[in-house]
Design goal:
One of its GO terms (molecular function) is DNA-binding transcription factor activity. It is built from eleven helices and twelve strands. By secondary structure, it is α/β, with parallel strands linked by helices. The longest helix has 28 residues. The N and C termini lie far apart (52 Å).
């Protein structure tokens, strides 16, 4: 029985498909099928039912699956123990980034980490902040750059990257274009342009509006703040934007939002009990360094 056979078996069991399993283990599909057949001959039992549209475990396959997984975990643990003794870090880290955030120097942060730990596999995905938070809490992500109202999220530890005012921005021909500030309640009957639900900036708007006793009239939603600014610049409504973006737009007039003032934060977040593996712990320590935080913040 070979280690690769165990790996292929677990991959097919998880994917319920030989082709997807082959892609997962980076081997041609015939190679996976051949090794599974060899494993079945050695064990003297059929491990998969191949008669349906999806591949399912037989009774024998279901019985051996926990042992196959345990064997692979034991081998991974042995490799990790040796790597820790020799100073080589291995493993995989999963990073998330809020969709509405401009990447800034996050690629540089990850590249620096990869340079120090070349044997660690890094994956990066985008989603709204609520999805990222759920993924962090579930252990699907090790680190994420999220937008939030306060920067504090139950079950997570955070390191603030940016904290800035959220402003209202309109075209220079708008009737509000002579105002320096606007009370939030004055936006009650205006068509608003904002990020979708699940983002930190939208949560700040919705929570403040609820306290003020009204529901915002969202006319346009987009996950890219630049698109929000473009829509407002064409006179389609009032854009709710981070001040750093609004101030760069010559076609827009930005106003402070008052009563209450709105603020948005961008924060690095990870599980409060700490990442599960040494690779993830190393990435968190790298991301928490002042150099890494200021690098991302400078490009928000």
């Amino acid at each position: 029985m070979e280690l690769r056979q165990l790996e292929y078996f677990v991959a097919v069991a998880e994917e319920a498909n030989f082709t997807r399993a082959a892609e997962k283990v980076h081997v041609a599909q015939p190679g996976v099928s051949a090794q599974i057949r060899r494993l079945e001959r050695e064990l003297g039992e059929t491990l998969f039912d191949r008669s349906g549209r999806t591949v399912t475990l037989t009774e024998a396959g279901a019985a051996v699956l926990p042992y196959m997984r345990a064997a692979l975990e034991a081998v991974a643990g042995a490799k990790q123990a040796v790597d820790e003794l020799t100073g080589l870090l291995r493993g995989r880290v999963a990073v998330g980034m809020v969709t509405s955030c401009r990447a800034g120097d996050l690629p540089d942060l990850l590249a620096d980490f990869h340079k120090n730990h070349p044997a660690v596999e890094i994956t990066l995905s985008e989603a709204n902040s609520d999805v990222l938070v759920a993924s962090l809490l579930a252990g699907a992500l090790d680190l994420a750059l999220i937008g939030s109202v306060t920067g504090s999220v139950p079950g997570l530890e955070t390191s603030i990257v940016t904290d800035e005012p959220i402003v209202a921005a309109v075209a220079r021909s708008d009737s509000f274009a002579d105002r320096a500030a606007v009370p939030l309640v004055d936006l009650r009957d205006r068509s608003l342009i904002c990020l979708p639900k699940g983002t930190g900036m939208r949560a700040a708007l919705d929570e403040a509006a609820a306290v003020a006793g009204f529901e915002p009239r969202i006319a346009f939603e987009a996950s890219d703040p630049g698109v929000l600014a473009d829509l407002a610049g064409r006179g389609l409504g009032v854009a709710i934007l981070p001040s750093s973006l609004a101030e760069t737009r010559r076609d827009l007039h930005s106003m402070s939002i008052t009563e209450p003032g709105l603020r948005g934060t961008l924060a690095l977040a990870w599980r409060a009990e700490g990442p599960r593996g040494p690779a993830a712990r190393a990435l968190v320590e790298h991301a928490r360094s002042p150099r890494a935080g200021s690098s991302i913040a400078s490009n928000r």
